[in-house]
Amino acid sequence: MTTLPTYPLVRPGPLHGTLLAGTVPLFLGALLSDIAYGQTYQIQWANFASWLIAGALVFCGFALLFALVNLVRAEHKGGRPVAYFLLLLGTWVLGLVNAFQHAKDAYAMMPTGMVLSAIVTVLAIIATWIGLTNLRSGVAR
Q1: What is the rounded distance in angstroms from the CA atom of residue 96 to the CA atom of residue 102?
Q2: CB count, 10 Å around CB of 31?
Q3: Is the separation of the CB atoms in 140 and 7 below 8 Å?
Q4: pLDDT of residue 141
Q5: 8-state DSSP, 20
Q6: Residue-level pLDDT at 81
Q7: Strand (E) or helix (H) holding 10
Q8: 10 Å Cβ neighbour count for 6?
Q9: Which of 5, 15, 47, 97 is exposed most, by the fewest CB atoms within 10 A?
Q10: pLDDT at res. 52
Q11: Strand partners for 9
Q12: Quick check: 137 pLDDT over 60?
């Protein structure tokens, strides 16, 4: 009977997972607030989106630090852990650009702010999906 090689699973810790999972509802809330502003033109929706993006950037930034530490500590520096880190980095950078876009006048931030919010939300969902699944480092033991 042959045995298949086993791969160590890399799971985020509880704090890393909480920070990572917290980015999705915050970025999604910002997207929904942008949609509400586009429908009603009530400036408070634009302000709410700005605050949600700021909170999401804090969560995403700390999750990015955890991902960087995990990437440096990983035995195998390729594959899904690198893709996860790069997706999270892209989410944070585009989220920062989105925050700058939302810092403009409420009327001037549309429609670019809504498009950026949609892109950042999708990136956050993909990064969270990859980050919370069982990542295999690719090293046989």
Answers
A1: 10
A2: 24
A3: yes
A4: 41
A5: H
A6: 84
A7: strand 9-10
A8: 10
A9: 5
A10: 98
A11: 136
A12: no
Tokens representing 69? 């530490």
Sign of CA dihedral 71, 74, 78, 79: negative
E strands along the chain, which residues?
9-10, 135-136
C-beta separation of 88 from 96 below 8 A: no
Distance CA 76, CA 64 (A): 18
pLDDT-above-90 percentage for the chain: 65
Do 30 and 53 meet the contact criterion of CB atoms below 8 Å apart? yes
**70 token code pair:** 């995990």
Tens-digit pLDDT profile for residues 86-121: 999 999 999 999 999 999 988 899 999 999 999 999
Each domain of the chain, given as residue ranges in start order, spans 9-135
